[in-house]
Design a protein that fits this description.
The complex is a heterotrimer of chains A (353), B (332) and C (548).
Chain A (H helix, E strand, L loop, with lengths): L2 E10 L2 E11 L4 E5 L6 H9 L6 E6 L2 E2 L10 E4 L11 H11 L4 H14 L15 H13 L5 E5 L7 H18 L2 E6 L2 H7 L2 E6 L2 E6 L1 H6 L4 H6 L4 E7 L8 E6 L2 E6 L7 E7 L4 E5 L6 E10 L3 E8 L4 E7 L11 E6 L5 E3 L2
Parallel strand pairs in A: 3-8, 3-9, 6-7, 7-8
Antiparallel strand pairs in A: 1-2, 1-4, 4-5, 9-10, 11-12, 11-14, 12-13, 14-20, 15-19, 16-17, 16-19, 17-18
Chain B lengths: L1 H26 L1 E7 L3 H14 L3 E7 L2 H10 L8 E5 L1 H4 L6 E2 L21 E13 L12 H4 L8 E4 L5 H25 E4 L2 H9 L5 E5 H10 L4 E4 L7 E9 L5 H11 L2 H11 L2 E2 L25 H6 L1 H15 L1
Chain C lengths: L1 H5 L1 H28 L9 H7 L1 H34 E2 L3 H4 L2 H7 L2 H12 L4 H8 L10 H26 L2 H9 L4 H30 L2 H6 L6 H10 L6 H28 L13 E2 L2 H29 L1 E4 L2 E7 L2 H9 L2 H30 L5 H7 L8 H11 L12 H24 L3 H9 L4 H29 L5 H4 L7 H10 L3 H25 L10
Parallel strand pairs in C: 1-2
Antiparallel strand pairs in C: 3-4
Helix pairs in contact in C: 2-14, 2-18, 2-19, 3-14, 4-9, 4-11, 7-15, 9-11, 10-11, 11-14, 13-14, 14-19, 15-25, 16-25, 17-20, 17-22, 17-24, 20-22, 21-22, 22-25, 24-25
The chains are: A alpha+beta (353), B alpha/beta (332), C mainly alpha (548).
Chain lengths: 353, 332, 548
């Protein structure tokens, strides 16, 4: 089912924390709201769920505007950060809860719940209470409970934040599989950018109640439209620079930075003047100094991180850039070595300051 | 789940319990007795009624006679009481409108002098006022032999009596003392005496040794002697003491008139009066009961009585109470 | 606001507020207004008090008594708590039942016990007399301070114990590492942190003394006390002056409210944030210290248990009228209670049962409203439900009598007014239990239920309420326990035929019939103990988890 919001506004104490927000989510896709605490992602999710009243605008589930419907009438499935399983009910009763609330006949309840639990490998635990389960098991129960009622939309509020890293990956996989099988439109909230990249069909990076950028994971990562987005997804060197002349969208420009000159691509048209350059550490190569190409610098710091080695390279002029090299051997360069930094213009972005 | 069902069952059980006694009560007949008498005496009545009036449940409301009479006044539109027991005529006189004339069977056995001309109330028992003395608490004081004795300043703080506004016992005594020893006597007494709001406190505190001397009725004091408390002695003041008759009455508009009348008859019966004498030490009003046969109390004829006019006492009640209150306030 | 109006909870809040206003605010307001004087032109009660030195003496005595009892209670309770928290000594497990014992023993029975033991005719006193030792009279200051302290020290004990247990021992260790001697470290670091709890207990004890009824009446002797004078104004009606009653009740309320304000002020001033830390492990005491402490603690416990023991003994002791024949046994007293005059027992069971059910139900609903469903009305509800804390039982009784005597809602003379008095007195406690358990139930659970299609109202019934049951059950047991023993309010509002056991015991004590009073007392203790035993043994309810 297609989910959409039009000109949505949400207010706390007469102050609008979300104003004029609109977006359409394709049926069956995973749409992620990403951002730091306080950016409004949870507020937006809860507004769509119905736990936060809407000040203006529409929320569309298919053709239905649910913005003024109470939460229990919206036919949503919700998964919470703390699992929110009913502690005094068994796993079976937890999952059956929504079905029974819809007056589904008991025989069908048993069948559907049994099947759902079996699907996540928890059939044997049907008679346990949540306290007897591990964190990962609980979240799977919560997921199944939300899905078994076949809701119009699946809403997930940081469901993996309470799990430790290894579990997070596993449960992430499970969520992905179940979501695809059910083909259910999903709205996912997280502050973890790796999760967002891995799970989403589209990501909305949010900042102070607004969508800073909406796009596919690749778009967000490769062509962040602002320093905020660039900094939030993946590590980035963000460098102040100037361009001598205006640049068209998609064209290359020559940017002056402290310590040299760099060719950069402008994803959007920019006027002459101050710009910001976004350089991902893994997009910069290092060569021994003296080749003539690239920027001159010196290794200031080196950290071996197993799969890659992270360098801080100081350019003439004092600017420091972070450079990650993988598969090159951990001691190719030592601290103090003079190096040349080589940048691929296609990978170096110039964005508005 | 066991939790909730058990709790519900418990609550249901309590609800059933709530219904039950009322249901039981509704089946039998009942009579409501308002009485100012202490638990001892009330017990006796209940015991006798259980045998003679089996099938009728007597419920009692206790309190000071003043308090009860005021309550009955407040309830006059819809009386809750059937029978009121007891008070002196001096107190009852001010509340005539609350009562209904009734002549109990057994009235004939009582001296005519005690009958009410319109049978508005009937005599229940007679009291003699005494000094209840706890000899162990006297300290160095000589045991008082007369009322005049206790007016002496050395008894300051050693005497206790109930508030006459609430207790007809106290009213009888104080009125009598004023008549006998004059306004000065009453004033001197007010200097020495401690007034307590509740009548049972008088004999209880003497019995428990808080005060050496209490002014109360012989029947109250004697319970301690009969109980075996050796240090308690009764003093019948040699300058004369006061007697009073307690009356009981049928309440006008009583909710259970049939049972009420039977209860009135019971109070006048030889059976109850004898039991009251034996167990609660209250002198009967019937002439056909010989006191000495049952308890070790002196015959009425041996006690020096200072006669007072009960009607006069009734008529001047308000004024007297005001006088007394002023004396007490001045003394404190 | 429109959103609010649509919510069913808003209407429920309004209904609850209305209920509270009628049955709580109205009686209290009437007390204050009535104290200012009636239309009959009779002067305001305050002028009466100002002119009659007895009342001023009563107030002064009450304050003095409060201070004395508080001091003694702290002197017993705080060291005992410290020792129990920090040390192991033989008999420590016995000391831990102290809170339970205090809870189980109604005050009127404690009064009776002291009388039976140390009254002028008392058993203990006579033994000591025979041994040649004459004790001073127990009535008056001696008796009041002793008997009250030996009940109220428990509050000081519990409060201090909790604070010391929660005190982070690392702070003390830090101080020691900085060079302070162990004792100094303890005093300098622990005392300031534990002080708020001690102060809170002290204020609580003071408040309880001011409102105390049973002990003040029975053991007060000749001392004028506020609660006694208030009661007498209510029942003796010497000059039939309801204005005076209201004024005295107002004085009592004012004193308690001042105490509450002082406590709030002190707590807000202190910047003590007690971070729940690792409590120190108790150290075992050995040698003389252990024996001395164990003996001292044992004596305290023995005295606390004395009332129950004496009630049991007295109930089976033969008596002739008011004189008890110690050593001669009979079952006649109990027979009388159970077969001849069981009305007080039935009354107690039904009234307390009804009151407990109502109080807990109300607490659950109000707790939910205040914790979860805040709307413009809920802060008002919050304040109003704190009112009963300022009312002594006597003051409440007077308020109820005046408010519901005549007019639009006559309740005097019914059982309802007794149940009402019970409910009002216990509501704050039930509410606190409900609220604290609700804080532990995450909002997300309710939202999960709602998201699954269950409307908020049914969510409360199906999801929240079942989770509140354990705490509510514990609160119900404790409410039952204290309601069954309630005296000071019910003795004012009751009408003939509706005596509860405590009222009956009180009247029998007044009349000197101690054996019968003991028989009723024994039944009362049983009525209190049975639910506690059932709850803790059969249902494994933790009664004190919600206590501070």
């Amino acid at each position: 089912m297609r989910i959409g919001i039009e000109d949505l506004a949400v207010a706390y104490d007469a102050r609008r924390v979300i104003d004029g927000l609109s977006v359409a989510i394709e049926p069956g896709s995973v749409f992620t709201l990403l951002g730091p605490s306080g950016c409004g992602k949870t507020t937006l999710l809860r507004a769509i769920a119905g736990f936060v009243p809407v000040a203006a605008g529409r929320i569309l589930f298919g053709e239905r505007d649910v913005a003024r419907l109470p939460a229990h009438r919206r036919n949503i499935g919700m998964v919470f950060q703390d699992y929110a399983l009913f502690p005094d009910k068994t796993v079976f009763d937890n999952v059956a809860y929504g079905l029974r609330a819809r007056d589904v006949p008991e025989a069908e309840v048993r069948a559907r719940v049994g099947e759902a639990l079996g699907r996540v490998g928890l059939g044997a635990l049907a008679d346990r209470v949540p306290a007897a389960l591990s964190g990962g098991q609980r979240q799977r129960v919560a997921l199944v409970r939300a899905l078994v009622i076949r809701p119009d939309v699946l809403l997930m509020d940081e469901p993996l934040s309470n799990l430790d890293t290894k579990l997070r990956h596993q449960v992430r996989e499970t969520i992905g599989e179940l979501q695809r099988e059910a083909g259910i439109t999903t709205l996912f909230v997280t502050h973890d950018q790796e999760e967002a990249l891995a799970m989403s069909d589209r990501i909305a990076v949010m900042n102070a109640g607004r969508f800073e950028q909406v796009g596919t994971p690749a778009e967000i990562y490769r062509t962040p439209c602002s320093a905020y987005v660039a900094d939030f997804i993946g590590a980035a060197n963000i460098v102040d620079a100037t361009i001598a002349s205006a640049c068209d969208a998609g064209a290359l420009a020559t940017a002056e930075i402290r310590g040299g000159r760099v060719a950069a691509r402008c994803p959007r048209a920019l006027p002459a003047g101050a710009v910001r350059l976004v350089l991902r550490p893994e997009d910069i190569s290092l060569a021994p100094a003296g080749g003539g190409d690239g920027l001159d610098g010196r290794i200031a710091r080196r950290q071996y991180l197993g799969s890659r080695t992270s360098y801080a390279v100081e350019l003439e002029g004092g600017l420091r850039l972070s450079v990650d090299r993988a598969g090159e051997g951990h001691d190719r360069f030592a601290i103090g070595d003079a190096v040349a930094l080589l940048l691929d213009p296609a990978r170096c972005l110039a964005i508005a300051p | 789940m066991t939790f909730r069902t058990t709790r519900r069952a418990a609550l249901a059980g309590i609800g059933a319990l709530a219904a039950a006694p009322r249901a039981l009560a509704q089946g039998a007949s009942q009579a409501v007795l308002y009485t100012s008498n202490p638990a001892q005496a009330v017990e006796v009545v209940m015991d006798v009624a259980a045998k003679s009036m089996a099938g009728t449940k007597i419920s009692t409301v206790t309190g000071g006679s003043g308090q009860l009479l005021r309550r009955m006044e407040a309830e006059a539109a819809r009386p809750q009481a059937d029978v009121f027991w007891t008070s002196s005529a001096n107190t009852l006189g001010q509340f005539k409108q609350l009562f209904e004339p009734y002549r109990p069977a057994g009235l004939s056995a009582m001296p005519a002098a005690l009958h009410h001309p319109q049978d508005l109330w009937a005599p229940a028992n007679q009291h003699i006022c005494v000094l209840m003395v706890n000899t162990k608490q006297l300290g160095g004081l000589p045991a008082p032999r007369t009322y005049a004795d206790i007016l002496h300043p050395r008894f300051k703080g050693k005497l206790i009596i109930a508030d006459p506004a609430n207790s007809s016992t106290a009213y009888t005594i104080l009125w009598g003392i004023e008549r006998m020893l004059g306004a000065d006597g009453l004033k001197a007494l007010a200097q020495n005496i401690r007034v307590t709001a509740s009548a049972p406190t008088v004999f209880r505190s003497v019995g428990q040794g808080e005060f050496p001397v209490g002014l109360t009725f012989e029947s109250n004091a004697y319970t301690y002697v009969a109980g075996g408390q050796k240090e308690i002695s009764l003093v019948y003041p040699e300058d004369g003491t006061f007697t009073t008759t307690e009356f009981y009455s049928l309440v006008k508009g009583a909710p259970n008139p049939v049972a009420a009348k039977r209860l009135c008859d019971l109070f006048a019966s030889k059976e109850l009066q004898t039991a009251l004498l034996e167990t609660a030490f209250r002198r009967p009003t019937r002439s056909d009961i010989e006191v000495g046969k049952y308890v070790q109390l002196p015959e009425m004829s041996k006690v020096k009585v200072f006669a007072t006019d009960e009607e006069d006492a009734a008529a001047q009640r308000t004024a007297f109470l005001a006088r007394w209150a002023a004396l007490v306030a001045a003394a404190n | 606001m429109r959103q609010e109006l649509r919510s069913v909870w808003f209407w429920i809040s309004l209904a609850v507020l209305a209920l509270l206003c009628v049955f709580l605010v109205y009686p209290v307001a009437r007390i204050f207004l009535a104290s200012l004087g009636g239309p009959s032109g009779a002067g305001s009660g305050w002028s009466i008090i100002a002119s009659d030195i007895r009342y001023q003496r009563a107030i002064a005595n009450t304050l003095l008594l409060g201070g004395a009892v508080t001091a003694v209670s702290l002197a017993i309770g705080v060291p005992l708590a410290y020792l129990t928290a920090r040390h192991d000594y033989p008999g420590k497990s016995v000391v831990s039942i102290l809170p339970l014992v205090t809870l189980v023993t109604p005050e009127v029975i404690v009064a009776q016990t002291w009388l039976m033991m140390l009254g002028n005719n008392g058993l203990l006193r006579r033994w000591l007399l025979e041994a040649g030792l004459e004790l001073p009279s127990f009535y008056g200051w001696f008796g009041l301070v002793t008997s009250m302290s030996f009940i109220y020290y428990t509050y000081a004990y519990i409060g201090t114990l909790a604070a010391i247990r929660g005190f982070d021992a690392q702070l003390e260790e830090a101080a020691r590492s900085l060079g302070a001697s162990p004792l100094r470290a303890r005093m300098q670091v622990m005392v300031p942190v534990v002080l708020p709890a001690i102060l809170a207990s002290a204020l609580l004890v003071f408040t309880l003394v001011v409102g105390n009824f049973a002990l003040s009446m029975i053991l007060g002797g000749g001392i004028d006390l506020l609660s006694v004078k208030t009661y007498q104004a209510a029942v003796s009606e010497t000059s039939s002056n309801p204005v005076l009653q209201s004024t005295l009740a107002s004085v009592s309320i004012s004193i308690v409210m001042s105490m509450l304000f002082i406590q709030r002020w002190i707590v807000s001033r202190g910047r003590f944030e007690v971070v729940q830390g690792r409590g120190a492990a108790p150290t075992r005491l050995g040698g003389f210290g252990a024996i001395a402490l164990a003996s001292a603690a044992g004596i305290v416990v023995a005295i606390s248990l004395l009332p129950i023991a004496s009630v049991v003994a007295g109930a089976f002791t033969l008596s002739r009228g008011p004189v008890m024949r110690w050593g001669q046994w009979t079952t006649a007293n109990l027979e009388r209670v159970l077969s001849r005059s069981p009305e007080p027992l039935w009354n107690t069971l039904t009234y307390a049962g009804a009151a407990t059910a109502i109080a807990i139900l109300l607490s659950a609903i109000i707790g939910y409203l205040v914790v979860r469903r805040r709307n413009p009305v809920t802060p008002l509800i919050d304040y109003v439900t704190a009112l009963p804390l300022a009312l002594s039982g006597t003051a409440l009784g007077i308020g109820l009598i005046h408010a519901f005597n005549v007019g639009w809602l006559p309740l005097t003379g019914t059982a309802a007014i007794i149940v009402l008095a019970y409910v009002v007195r216990r509501l704050p406690f039930g509410l606190r239990s409900a609220s604290s358990t609700l804080y532990n139930i995450p909002r997300s659970i309710e939202e999960a239920s709602i998201s699954l299609g269950v409307p908020p109202g049914r969510t409360f019934l199906k999801v929240v309420l079942p989770l509140m049951v354990p705490a509510l059950a514990a609160a119900a047991v404790l409410t039952w326990t204290t309601t069954v023993a309630e005296l000071s309010a019910s003795i004012i509002v009751y009408s003939g035929g509706r005596e509860t056991i405590p009222i009956q015991v009180f009247k029998l004590i007044e009349g000197g019939l101690m054996a019968q009073a003991s028989a009723y007392g024994l039944v009362l203790v049983a009525v209190i103990l049975v639910p506690i035993v059932v709850a803790t043994r059969v249902f494994r309810i933790d009664l004190f988890s919600s206590r501070a």
